[in-house]
Input
Amino acid sequence: MNSDFVANFPRQLRFWALHVPLNALPSFIIAISLFRLDKQSFAIVTILAVIVLFIIALATIVAMVPDLNREKHPLARGLRAAMIFRAWVCGLSAAMLVIAPPFLMLTPDFWCGYISAALVNGLSRFLHLGAASVSTGSFLPVMLTTVTEGAIIATGIAMLAFFLSLYLQIRERRKAFTSAGSQPHLRRSS
Output
């Protein structure tokens, strides 16, 4: 385990306690408006419990990776940039869902939720578990769908953070070559 885990965990817990609920907001609005889960308090408690689970899991994972806790490291900067991008997407999606509900198909959270609901329904049919639709408000379908959707979104954010960190690293190297007085060789000379 990382020796700095104890020092990094509270900071990461605060960071993810802000970003995970913000990331979940558009999906929560969709669940309430589309599946009418506002009438099923147990389903809402289940969704909130999964959100808390994601906060703790992401804070733990990120606190254990030393490079993600160094401010200047490309991975940390890529993750920060990806989270800022996702925060903007969530804010705009939530506003659009409240102002213009017919445009819900334009939000990425709708498609992540649609894919996760389809996966959970397919899994329940494959395992002969009966009706495991999210709209029933039962614990297992709501929990599995929420976890699956969160995993899809987290995977997307991780991929975006990785590619942003590559971009940031390439940009820094070009700056270093330019400031050193030599131009980076981008093409092979024949």
In short: The chain has five helices and no strands. The CA atoms of residues 124 and 131 lie 7 Å apart. The chain has a mean pLDDT of 85.
